[in-house]
Amino acid sequence: MSQTAGETAERTTASDTPPDAERLRRWRMVLGADSADSTGRTLTGQDAAMDGALDALYGGGAGKKPNGRGTGGRSAGLGASAPSVARWLGDIRTYFPSSVVQVMQRDAIDRLGLSALLLEPEMLEAVEPDVHLVGTLLSLNKAMPETTKETARAVVRKVVEDLERRLESRTRATLTGALDRSARISRPRHRDIDWDRTIRANLKNYLTLPAPDAATTAGETGATPTGTVVPERLIGYGRSSRSAKKDIVLCVDQSGSMAASVVYASVFGAVLASMRTLSTRLVVFDTAVVDLTDQLDDPVDVLFGTQLGGGTDINRALAYCQSRITRPADTVVVLISDLYEGGIRDEMLKRVAAMKASGVQFVTLLALSDEGAPAYDHEHAAALGALGAPAFACTPDLFPDVMAAAIEKRPLPIPDKEYQP
């Protein structure tokens, strides 16, 4: 695990500790409380506090979960008590870096069934916000009491604002460049000529001019030969327009396994919607389809408009998206789903084929998250790949490049070994 404050503090006295004793201390920290007898090492100070925080989550106990059900194995000692969990959350934030705290929080929710405790405001105020916590809160949204909702929105907003700061500038820069390149024309007016690209494209047409006559150069030495570029092909910028250059449709699966993807898609949807040169639509679906486009000015509203869980009907969602396409050649449809289809598979594939035939750029993302490739329907992924819409997992950092390639109608930057039909 990453170096902690406790380790740093203990290191100040390491020079006074015999090498064998220091080695035993480290093994005792790694192996946990059950190793106390075998190592013969007693922890003190921050070492003991850190060990207690870890043991509460990962240590051996009476073999019971907080609800009293036996597990027959290792269990934790937090119990189903909001005050004790809140104290524990404060402890781990004291002793461990933020990245480790987020992992431990996630493990506590998964291993100990503490989701219900997140409905209490004092618990939410103690947690370290991250994407996975937002997903858990969204799944509890319908059961959340009114006294907790404002605190939950504050937690979600903090995560969303952090993501926007990290992702917005690069997304804007990448897509603005892609839109400019896709709008360049080959017969521009003089004021619309992109001189830099025009010169580069015509360097092969460079001509050396004849040397000046003797009369002109009398008295001069070392005259520099001159030349010119013959611009056989002009490259220009497309004329600015108030209308959108491209239509983007984000079609997002809101089944429970796609929680992190829903969070990132909502943030990217808000960023794309803020660009005047794009017309962005956000559609979320399970067995029903909900269009959240009118809420894209606030991704927090978008997230609380989703309902994680339920079945999946991709065909129905794509039918809705297809009905909203008015400029196929200038439209990019991004389906974000693990492809476990509960609807009509053949109809889904026919819709994708029809959209591509009309000129739509179709992108299939198995996930939009930092976790890599999730479990997904390999048969459906292979079928989409055969239609020219390969399915692959995408990290948030790669998403702007994927969208830029789709806008420019270039091959998608599929990560190595991600797509295996």
Care to describe what's here?
This protein is of the alpha/beta class and about 425 residues long. The protein is about 45% helix and about 10% strand. It has helices spanning about 5-10, 20-30, 35-40, 45-60, 80-95, 100-110, 120-125, 130-140, 145-185, 195-200, 260-275, 300-305, 315-325, 345-355, 380-385, 400-410, and strands spanning about 205-210, 225-230, 245-255, 280-285, 290, 330-335, 360-370, 390-395. Strands 5-4-3-6-7-8 form a 6-stranded mixed β-sheet. α8 crosses α9 and α9 packs across α11 (about 260-275). The longest helix has about 40 residues, at about 145-185. The radius of gyration is 29 Å and the shape is globular. The two termini are about 35 Å apart. About 35% of the residues are buried. Residues about 1-15 and about 60-75 have low confidence and may be disordered.
